[in-house]
């Protein structure tokens, strides 16, 4: 069992949540191809648990193709019923999702939407990753009792400076605040190397969210392998 920097034993392996976003490199058949690459690596390198967050249209095909946990990138706050063009927690679960990302900075939700979407997700047994860009509203979001609060400074998303390099203090503060509330901490934005992942974990995070540096890499297999080899 791994320990974080405070010597606290982590019950679960750290998470590497790979957000496929809406990149063409991770859409449709390419989403399946990338998912299979991740699965092959996950079998060899077991230090982290790899989770994939895919587009709604790819949930079923990706979760059917691999044994890794697959998450939805969003949910609407609706029960099953007379709604059109919405994503219910029930439909995501039926499509194979094991969890959901909510309130990503690229898909922000009102507090009311977020509360209801969390409620629906839990009702259907989905794990919840609620995102925020800052710690200002951390208490309010922690009150929703998500499985994880993911801190992603929006200005670093898609860039080459990582949250681990730019804001190690933010990670430590998030861990201090949220550990007491029994909410796991994930961090993300600009993560581009094994040491970035390692630092986040050493600072007490339960894992990281990553996207562009894996999904858009010329050779995602090589990049992912080299990160995991450096943990
Ligand atoms: O959800 C993960 C994400 O927002 C981070 O994106 O491209 O900076 O790894 P990226």
Key attributes of the depicted protein:
binds SN-glycerol-3-phosphate, single chain, alpha/beta, 231 residues, 8-stranded parallel beta barrel, 37% helix, globular
Fold and architecture overview:
The protein is of the alpha/beta class and about 230 residues long. The protein has ten helices and eight strands. It is globular. The structure holds SN-glycerol-3-phosphate (G3P). SN-glycerol-3-phosphate binds near residues 19, 104 and 191.
What is the strand content?
15-25%
Query: Major β-sheet, in short?
Result: 8 strands, parallel, barrel
What is the averaged pLDDT score? 95
Q: How many β-strand stretches?
A: 8
Structural class: alpha/beta
How are the secondary structure elements laid out?
Layout: E1 15-19, H1 29-44, E2 49-54, H2 59-65, E3 69-72, H3 89-94, E4 99-102, H4 111-123, E5 127-132, H5 138-142, E6 148-151, H6 163-166, H7 168-179, E7 184-188, H8 194-202, E8 207-210, H9 212-215, H10 220-229
Parallel strand pairs: 1-2, 1-8, 2-3, 3-4, 4-5, 5-6, 6-7, 7-8
The structure holds SN-glycerol-3-phosphate.
SN-glycerol-3-phosphate (G3P) is lined by residues 19, 104, 152, 157-158, 188-191, 209-213.
